[in-house]
Every structure is written in structure tokens, then in C-alpha cells.
């Protein structure tokens, strides 16, 4: 088989930059691409930041409100604030950044334009498909939550996702997903399209930011309680925060009244705009208003610093596209205990710091929380965490290299 050499990888960031997990995912992939670049398997890494063309903006203004348009255009600023200008010299030195018109298939600053400017291109990962590209495309599908929890999605959203995922499977040269569970899910639910596609499922390989190991951040401003668990997830309905709050109430009844839960993450769920308000009503009914703390969306370095001081991270999720979700990736990366739901995808994690409870069962979760309170946990040393990080980087790089070789030589 001919070995991959000097490929240009173009990353169209549309579909990733508007949510924190998507930005973390791009960083995750870029770390592996940088290693391939060091090995001369990749010559250039281009990250294309989506902006809307003048015509696209005009049409959007006609169809929507100016306020909505301005909010959409702020997406680019979000990338710059939380991704480009973080203290990660490795990424900023290795990656070339360009704007591109995500709403145009042809013309200057379109994806096709950049493909034509480069030699031996692979577009990876892409959340869309373009048939007219004269290069290999590796699509990305996050999960099939809309099929497992259809009541969480409006009808038009479910139809759009089905159509898009089928096209990605049919038209891309390969598709990458975040787990073996999601790979099997695609094959089961889209058998015809999956039979045409090479689907690659990532193993669980959390990659920490080295700068956050010695993360000297002052978190005193948050006035945190002495003893707390942490939930670091957006307040989407499938994250099932309520099960954790009920588990805390059970602990309080048992006599652990000084235990709190600290929550980080955006409180908005566009599908259920009243969800957070309903949660707060439930908290009031449980008489836990003084014991549950909402910090909102905070800088990553502060989130990790707060997580390190917690008894454990809790992830009560009902559905994920990758094992444990981003919070568990972080917990394992930095040597923090994690208590997570026993949904099938989560059981792909094999790590002594990760413990499982029966999903949607607050009694099961409270037992795991009580055990964590009463069990001494010795965190891995930084040297141990760095060694594991290096192993994961090498495993992920090899995985990516083998996938690229397979795609290029097909």
C-alpha cells in the first residue's frame, strides 16, 4: 500500500465552531494532524473559518431579523476568543487560518476555491458533502440522538438530519465517528448507505491541554462550597441533570447535608427553552436551592481548576456520540474521578477513575456519590498523566494515518 505523503488537510469548521464541544473536537483532531505533519505525512493544515457571503447575509436579513443575523455573525468571534487565541503555540504555529464562504459552492473563498489552490488535498472532517470537489472527503457524523429520542427534536429537524447523514454516508469517501457504538448505530439505522461507506470509529483517547496540568487559576471569585461534585455539561435535556439533583437529595436525607453540586455550562437548550426554568423549579421542590450552584459558561482553564477540586465529576447523560461526553474526556485527561451513566456507549471507557451508575436511577447514583465521599482517591501524578497523554496522541495519530492511507489508496 502506498504510504500517505505530503497531503494538505483542509478543515471546514462549519458545524463545529458554534458549540464548545465542537471546538474541543477540532483541537483533538488537530493535535493528531500536527503529529502527522511532524512525520512529513501532512504538509499543510488549513482551518477554514465560516463567514457568510454578502448575498447570503442579505437573504438572511430578508428572511429573519437583523438581531438574528448579527448573532450568527458573532460565531466567528467565538472561535477567536475560545480557540485561536488560547495559549497553545503548537496549534497556532502549525495551522493556517482562512475565512471561507460556507454558503457558496463555487467562486473565491469557497471551499472549492481553497481545494484548487492546494495539491493532494483531503477535506477532513466535514459536516457537509460536496460532490464537485476533486479530492477525498472524510465526513463527520456526531450521533443519531434524533432517532433514539425523537421527542427531543422537531419533525423538520429529524428529516433534515436523516437526509444529511445519508448524503454524507453515500457521497463522502469515508466517515468518522467518535465511538464503536455510533458506528454500529449508523450501520443499523442506515444499512443501505452504510454499505457504501467506510466508517471509522475512534477509540476513547482523551488528549489534555498540557498548559492546564499546572493550571494556577484563582477560583476564589466563585465562592465555591468546601465539598462538591461537578457537572460540566450544557443544559440540554438529554444530559439529565435532574437525576443528579435527586441523588443529592437522597444523600442529604442520609446525613450528607454539607455536600453540594456545582454546574458549569450554557443553560440554553433551543429545543426546550423552558428546560432550565423547569429544573430550577424542581430544585426548589427538593429544597436544594442553597446546595446547587450554576456558574454558566466559563473559561476552560477555570472549569478544569474547579473540576480538580471536586470530589468527582458526574455525567448523568442519557445519550452521547462519544464515550462519556466531553466532561469525562476532561476528567480522565486530568486525573479526576468520574461517575457516569451506564449507557452502552459509556462502557467503551476502561479506566480505574471512571465508575458507572444505572442511568436515570438517583438511588444508584447516590450510592456511587457516597462511595466517592468516603473513599480516598489518589490522583495520578502529572508525569503519569503526561505519559498517558503521549500514548494517546501516538495511538490517535496512528489511527488517523491508517484511515488516511485507506482512503487515499481506495
Please explain how this structure is put together.
The protein is globular, with a radius of gyration of 22 Å. The chain has a 7-stranded parallel β-sheet with strand order 3-2-1-4-5-6-7, sandwiched between helices. It has a 3-stranded parallel β-sheet with strand order 8-9-10, with helices on both faces. With 410 residues, the protein is of the alpha/beta class. The protein folds into 2 domains: 7-207 and 389-405, Rossmann fold (3-Layer(aba) Sandwich), CATH 3.40.50; 210-383, Glycogen Phosphorylase B (Rossmann fold, 3-Layer(aba) Sandwich), CATH 3.40.50. The longest helix has 27 residues, at 382-408. Helix 13 (325-333) links the parallel strand 11 (313-315) and strand 12. Helix 1 (20-38) packs across helix 15 (382-408) and helix 10 packs across helix 14 (362-374). The model is unreliable at 67-82 (pLDDT under 50). It has 15 helices and 13 strands. It is 44% helix and 16% strand. It has helices spanning 20-38, 54-63, 66-84, 89-94, 111-117, 145-148, 155-171, 180-189, 191-194, 241-254, 275-285, 300-308, 325-333, 362-374, 382-408, and strands at residues 7-12, 42-51, 96-101, 121-126, 136-140, 174-177, 199-201, 228-232, 260-264, 292-294, 313-315, 338-341, 354-357. The termini are close together.
